[in-house]
Design goal:
345 residues, alpha/beta, 12 strands, 32% helix, 16% strand, binds S-adenosylmethionine
């Protein structure tokens, strides 16, 4: 039984789904959750694992074959390996991965792996304890590094490290991060600082562009060559190779957006479905699911909505004359679904 492949108005398939399992986080990264207080999603609205499983099944019938578990911090969700176990059984899902800040990883890595998780990404922005605390408001760099070490030794198909690069904060650690990744055989991906909802302190001055990252890295390592990567052409990271063969990625959503290839959508922990990180609103899938709409009905709703998609949020932001933080704090407090940590990053 093949999936029905559907395309949006710009010809983009519904290939990749990010599933947020909680909006809660145990860090307060200054580029994502810099405020003191947050409004959380009501607990009763949070999808059960069975509900997530049902929705992923419906998406897979429409061509989704890449699923990434995210949050908030996904490892805060109780019994997460149970969900991994359900999703890992789906033969239609060719690529299952999880993104974590790593704080709780050391304790959970073996059960995640045993449940069938093939790939993991650890978000890590600095290797310096003082900076980690300043950046995240918590003191657990050691725990993250331990979790990452254990992930590197756990036999995953791939371990990646995602680093948001911010001018004057951690942009002097590009080489250190690459060296750390190389020691662990983990591919590092540098992410440009994005003006998404939640990044209330964002300023263009704080963005280190992909060009600038490449300039600095080639000044240190010598010539850097692009990796021609047909297989993952819809992936957000452009990949590059150092003269010694080390491969790394850059996700340049801010200065060189990849909207034209964007095949991603996002399901929040309470079942709202977003077709763009920048979209002001999403589609409620929890309501119909809990009202008893069957798989065919959900499939029809998702297909119809995807076919109407013409979002190009990051490109539109790039074209905007006035680039200040996207959404004011008062609006975020009234509408937590606009937050990056609710949408799943
Ligand atoms: N807690 C998990 C983690 O830390 O990986 C998953 C959720 S987090 C929102 C997903 C990713 O979004 C992280 O790699 C984080 O660094 C990234 N992120 C959050 N705010 C960002 C921003 N303003 N610009 C770029 N990346 C951002």
């Amino acid at each position: 039984m093949g999936a029905t492949r559907i395309l949006d108005r710009l010809g983009r398939p519904l290939t990749s789904l990010r599933v947020s399992v909680t909006d809660r986080c145990n860090l307060r990264c200054q580029y994502c959750m810099p405020e003191q207080e947050y409004v959380w999603l009501p607990r009763a609205d949070i999808l059960t694992f069975e509900e997530i499983d049902t929705l992923v099944e419906v998406f897979s019938c429409l061509g989704t074959d890449r699923v990434r578990i995210t949050g908030g911090e996904p490892l805060l969700r109780k019994n997460l390996p149970d969900l991994i176990g359900l999703l890992a059984q789906k033969t239609a899902i060719k690529d299952l991965a999880l993104t974590t800040n790593g704080v709780l990883l050391a304790d959970q890595v073996s059960s995640l792996r045993a449940a069938g998780l093939p790939r993991i990404t650890v978000s890590l922005d600095t290797l310096r304890a003082d900076r980690f605390e300043k950046l995240t408001r918590f003191k657990n760099l050691d725990a993250v590094l331990r979790g990452l070490d254990m992930a590197a030794a756990a036999g995953f198909d791939s371990v990646k490290v995602d680093t948001v690069v911010i001018a004057g904060v951690n942009d002097d650690e590009l080489v250190a991060m690459l060296e750390h990744g190389r020691r662990l055989a983990a591919e590092v991906r540098f992410i440009e600082y994005m003006d998404v909802g939640g990044a209330t302190r964002w300023s263009m001055r704080d963005v280190v562009s992909r060009q600038e990252m490449l300039r600095r890295l080639s000044a240190h390592y010598g010539p850097i060559t692009p990796v021609d990567d047909n297989e993952t052409s819809a992936a957000p990271a452009d990949r590059f190779m150092l003269p010694d063969g080390t491969v790394f990625g850059i996700i340049s959503s801010t200065t060189e957006p990849f909207c034209r290839q964007c095949d991603r959508s996002r399901l929040t922990a309470d079942g709202l479905w977003y077709r763009c990180l920048y979209a002001p609103s999403g589609t409620d899938l929890r309501g119909p699911l809990r009202a008893g709409v069957d798989a065919d009905g959900l499939e029809a709703l998702i297909a119809e909505t995807w076919r109407a998609r013409d979002d190009r949020g990051a490109e539109q932001r790039l074209a905007a004359d006035d680039r200040s933080p996207l959404i004011p704090i008062e609006t975020l407090q009234a509408q937590p679904h606009l937050e990056m940590h609710t949408r799943g990053g």
